[in-house]
Amino acid sequence: MYDLIVKNSNLLDPKAEEPLSCDIGIASGRIAALGTLSATDGQQVMDAAGCYVVPPLIDAHLHAAPLASLGVPVDAVCLPSGVGAAIDAGSAGSGTAAGLLPHLANMRVHVKAYLNVSATGLASLNGYPENINPRYFQERQIQQLFERFPDRLIGLKIRVGRETVQDMGLEPLIEARQLARKLGVGLMVHGTNPPFGLDEVLDLLDAGDVLTHFLHGHGHTILDADGRVLDAAVKARRRGVLFDVGDAGYHLSFKVAEAALRQGFKPDLIGTDLTVNGLYKRDKSFSLPYVMAKMIRLGLPLKDTIACCTQNPARLMQL
Predict the structure, then answer these.
(1) Among 5, 35, 93, 175, which residue is least crowded by beta carbons within 10 Å?
(2) CA distance 64 to 112
(3) CA 185, CA 150: separation in Å to the nearest integer?
(4) What is the C-alpha to C-alpha distance for residues 93 and 120, in angstroms, rounded to an integer?
(5) DSSP 8-state code for residue 72
(6) Beta-carbon neighbour count of residue 1 at 10 Å?
(7) What 3-state class would DSSP assign to 257?
(8) Angle between helix 139-148 and helix 171-183 axes, rounded to 10 deg
(9) CA neighbours within 13 Å on the CB side: how many for 164?
(10) Cβ 185 vs Cβ 198: under 8 Å
(11) Residues of the chain with CATH 2.30.40.10
């Protein structure tokens, strides 16, 4: 006897080449059987004809309350959208994380986080940008946080847009990279509208690092003057650098995305960059399935779209 039988499903396994048409038997919260099952063997029966069944989705980039003032209530937002896990992209910094990270344990959605190199994280983002001057990196406190929360923190985050870099050039990114290497963790880099070429950013990234907002259309983009994907991006991917959509409405250019996808340059991760500013707003990121639909419409195959929201971020989160 099963607690639930899902009849007539089209099961999308990211590792399989084609969807599997089958019934799914669920017992004690786990998949117990795949195949042709009798409805009489289920306490509840759901007909999934015409629907896809996928593993729990993972949002590779959002901002969670209470880690940031603009963060979203994760359980209320993610669970109705089929999202079972998420990555917080640097909402908290060394000065705020100790009091905020313990709240993640109370969530039903499994959340891991990048720690912002700025001590204040994104606490002031609605008013003014965070301070990424390396002089103020609190290296000792950052190291202590990674020692205290090894199961929650997965890397460092830095934003290198014009508004944060100002006149500091590549120094903040170089110092953040060195700190990440010292800690043995990855680095997530916000790459929208940098004051230098994205090739300079990409040349500093290594395996396990993430360039988020890689399909933005502001200033220096992932395309060269001829509309070709930068050689530095191709080389970075070969090194194992990951590329995240990080939509938020502002960070996804359809023109850039269509050009990149035509050239076979696909995302590894599909993050919403959800905040209260974009939640359930159609001109923003709305929800993870909404952003997935955007990417499918732009030309990303369904199989790749599912992988970007399941196995790829799961590997990054070490689930």
Answers:
(1) 35
(2) 10
(3) 11
(4) 5
(5) B
(6) 10
(7) helix
(8) 40
(9) 28
(10) no
(11) 2-53
End-to-end CA distance of the chain: 29
For 230-249, write each residue's pLDDT tens digit: 999 999 999 999 999 999 99
What CA dihedral angle connects 308, 161, 223 and 59, to 10 degrees? 10
Q: Dig out the tokens for 31 from the structure.
A: 């998949």
Domain 2-53 has CATH 2.30.40.10: yes
Tell me the pLDDT of the chain averaged across its residues. Answer: 95
Amino acid identity, residue 90? G
Please, where in the chain does CATH 3.20.20.140 lie?
Answer: 57-317
Q: What is the distance between the alpha carbons of residues 38 and 58, in angstroms, rounded to a whole number?
A: 31
Q: Which two tokens stand for residue 189?
A: 């880099």
Q: Is 212 buried (19+), middle (13-18) or exposed (0-12) by CB count in 10 A?
A: buried
The CATH number assigned to the domain with range 57-317 reads 3.20.20.140
